[in-house]
Each structure stands twice: as C-alpha cells, then as structure tokens.
Records
---
Amino acid sequence: MTTRVAVVTGAARGIGAAVVHDLAKSGWAVVAVDVCANNPTLPYAMASRDDLEEVVEPYGDAVLPVVADVRDPQALAAVVSQAVTRFGGLDAAVAGAAVLAGGVPMWELPDATYDALFDVGVRGVHNLARAAIPALLERPVPRSGRFVAIASAAASERGLWHPLATYCAAKHAVVGLIRGLAADLRGTGVLASAVAPGSTRTDMLDATAAIYHLGSVEEFAAHQLTDRPILEPAEVAAAVAWLCSPASSAVTGSVLHVDGGFIG
C-alpha cells in the first residue's frame, strides 16, 4: 500500500503537533510546518524551532520539519513541492496554524492585531488550500484527498462571551472558506471539512485564560456538557485524522464539533 502524505501547519505544538503525532503513528509521511517565530502584535510567545524538532524527532525520515509562514503563499507552495518531491505526492492538508488575541471590545482592537488574526487564521488557510489543492488533484482517480481546517467553538451560532469578537469572526471565516471549497471540489474526490474544537489544553487556551483573568484553564470546563476536564489535543487530533482517512468518504463541507458539548 502506498504511503499517504500530509502537510500540517501549526505543527510545533498544540493541536497541530498532536495531528502530526496521530498521522505519523498511523503510517503517514508528514511535512510538519510552523513559523517558529514570535509575532509582536500577540500577547503570548509562538512555538520555537526546538518545539518543532521535538515533535518530529520520534519519526525519523517519515516526518519532515519545515519552518514557513502561512501568510506567505510562495512559502506554502514550496512546502507542497517538498512534500511531492520527497514523498511522491500529497493526500491531505491540515490547516492548523492560528493565533488568538482580544481582551478589548472589537472597536478598540488595534489594526495590527486584527491583521494578525485574519492573516494567520484565515488567509493562512486560504494560502494552504491554493498551494495544496492542485497537488491533491494530481492523485489518480479515484481520489481520496482531504483538506481539513481547524476552526473553533468560537464559530458556533453565537459569539463567545466578552471581548473575542474578531477571533470569532476569523473562525467563522474559516468555516465559510471550507464550505465554499467543498463546493468548488464537487465531483473531484477531494473533500474539505473543518474541526471545531472546544477548550483544549494548548498555549492558546492559556492566552484565553489570561484574557478572561482566570486562575486556571480548567475553569473553561464549566462550559462543556461532558462534566469533565478540558479537552486534550490528542482528542481533537483523532477527529482530524479520521477526516483525513477513507472512513470519512461521506463527509465534506461539514464542521465536526469536538468540544465536549460546548454551551458558551
């Protein structure tokens, strides 16, 4: 059986890293992509090159670490080219790169912070799709390509409480992109879906807790129907891996909610 190949962005930590681990342990070849550089407009540190190397280290040549910025279309085109050259093609692309900021009402958010939320979290998904879809379509018929984006419970029917309006808007935009992309891919055999995580134990959730002045991220568990601790990245990654698999052949244009029954 031919090894399936994926590109994963936001791969150095959190949900993106968990996706790399899940796919690699299942026999996928993966190009793990992260910017590995801080953004001065954001209130928390980004992952480092050491974080990315730690993610890929267990898998040897099966996982290729690449430092690249999802805001740069040419960089993502080069990433996809590396996947095709090194591993022979592309079968899935997972858009996991995103950032979080807020803490003030929408009308007070600095323009640079707004730009970071949309440039990374929305344009980054768009850039990955533009780079990856042609490679997914190069696979012979019948195809089983997958494009999966990480959205959020923030893209639910109502906005999150308190000042995260622009983050909510960015995640709604991700869902819109996925639904439009699925329509564009109609009949090709390549499917597009999103996963909407709830409160998941990541550095971004730490940043969210700081915005809400919470003493612990565990306080977010009160917004889940499951009456259990907050989610672990591996739980979200399992859903992403399923969407990348042949088992998801009837799912496209959909949002899979992995949020513990988020109630806002």
---
Amino acid sequence: MLLIEFNPRIIESKDWATIIFVVALTLLVIARTVFETRFNDYIRLLVSDKYTKIYRDSSHLWSGFNILVFLVNLVALSFFIQMLLAHFQHGSKNDWMLFTRIFTGLMVFILSKFLIEKIIAVTFGIEELIDEFNLQKVNFRTYIGVLLFPISALMYYSNYATNLLIIVIISILLLINLLTYLISLSNHQNLVISKLFYFILYLCALEITPYYFIYYLITKN
C-alpha cells in the first residue's frame, strides 16, 4: 500500500516588511511636504554645503525634520543589517522578530551614545563643539539612511545580494562617514585645536571604542 505523507509548505510572509517600508516612505513624503525648502537643500548635502551652513545651530538637532529622517535611517539601516545576516546565513530576511531586535538595538545604542556624549561634553567643557559635531553627524548619517532606503528595499524584494555589492555599499557608507569627520574638523578646526586633548579623549572613548566592541562581538559570535 502506497503511503503518501503531506508536509506543510511554510511560506514566510513579507507583509510586515511591506508595511514598514510604506510607513518609512510616508515619513519621507511628510518631510518633503512639510519641510520642502529644507528637504531640497538636504538632498544636495554631498554636493553643496548650503544645508550645513543654514542649519548649523545645535537647536536643529531635535527638529521635526531630523526626527523624521532619523526614523527612516533606522528602518533602512536595520533592514540592511538584516540583509547582511541573511546573506551570510545568520538569520532570515523575513524574520520580523530579528528586524525588531535589530531596530530596537540600534535605537538604544544611538540614543545611549548620544546621552553619554552629552554628559562627557558638559564635563569636559566642550558642549558647544560636541553639539555642532553631533548635528553634522546626524545630518550626514541620516542622509546615508535616505540613500540606503531604496537599496535595502531592492535587496529585500529582488533577492539580489552579492559579496561585491555588499562590499561596495559598505565602502561607500564608510567613505561618507569619513567625509563627515573631515568636514566637521574643517569647520571647527580652531575650536578643536583649543580643546584638542579633550576632543581626542572624546574620539577614543565614544567614536572608536564602541564600534570596536561591536565588531569584536560580531566576529566572535
């Protein structure tokens, strides 16, 4: 007698990812509509310094515009990290719990780092320098997130991710981050020189050490 055994076919749903992508896109549309002039200057950030000159005051750090693009940045970066984990077979790209953990971890890391930076800046008396430095970092890093958003969506839905593509994307991200530091140092070189010792301590403690430990944890696990 022929026995036929039926195995359930498990199909991972992408509905949750589609909803998140749509929400992030809606946030970008809101930023484009409500802050039209600012958004137009913002998208030319890499080719023009107009945006950084107009919005260089630290009071803009927690503006509505920055909060909107920051959320888009978190979504794009979280999806990109999940794509990397899936590509190297350390997780599934359709695992919404994994995305939630990555998103939450990134948000806690960034906000905690910002709070510690604020405390150290006040302690060392370099609050003005660090506030402006953080504003420039936020500008460029959220800009990275906006650029990464369509790339993450394309990688998610097209199943197209090669080692070369990943290396190119990461190299571009690192280059833009390096550009952020160079521009910030150039714009505040007099203030940096006057507080050079404390600024070096700040860089070692909060711009190098945290990322080294993250790299160490990832490579060891």
---
Amino acid sequence: MKTIRDIMSTDCVTVSLQDNIYEIALKMKQHDIGFIPVVDGGKLVGVVTDRELVIRGYADKHSGSGAVKEVLSTDVTTAAPDTSVDDAAKLMASRKVRRLPVVENGKLIGVVAIGDLAVREIFVNEAGEALSEISEHSTQTIGS
C-alpha cells in the first residue's frame, strides 16, 4: 500500500508568525504557489492560501506590513505520513481541500496536493473523485 510519504512534496515553502502579509504574497509570487504553511519552530500552526490573502488581507484593507495572524487559517486538515494515498484522497474530498499538510509529531514534514494524486496513474480515479467533490463545493460556495 502506497502512503502519502511516498508522494508528498518535502521542499515546502513556509512562513512564520513573524512574517507579514507582503512577505507571504512575495513568496507566493516567487515560487508560483497559492498555499503556504505557517510554522513556529517547525510546528504547523496554520496555512495561508492566495484566496485568504486577498479576502482576509487586502480586501479587508490590511497593509502589507500586517501580521500573518490576520490572514491565517488555523483549522487545518492534516494527515500523518503513513496515511494511505486512498485515505488521503478521501479525506481531501470530504474536507474539500486541494492541499493536505503532512504532519509528524506536530511538525510539518510535507504537503500532498491534489495533483500529486493525479500524476500517479493508479490513483487517477481517487484524485478525480476528490477534485470533483472539491470543485462541486467551490461552485456551490460561489453561487451562494
């Protein structure tokens, strides 16, 4: 059985609580990403997505020097590295998330993205199912 340890990205770009909104945006631009875990001493304390940066940050008129905590999501769905790829896909679908931080003893050790599931041929169905459910939720949120 393949686990998410086998497919997760370990070269995660992160920020700390001492960073600011501008630094998050800059890292997203530099690394062409829309998701950044926030760590404190290696421990995952939350995440920031590009959407949260816009909605909670700039749309609420926070300046670039605003604190990370102003845009941070702390209710984060995570998985252990020994979680099966199938279980991770199901978890991502049920929680409507496209990225899943992988945590061991509270510390961030990697991230699995929906694309990581899709590129493994054996898991194409699981990834498609997860993405379908995530997209369905996104459409409902937009239309609400």
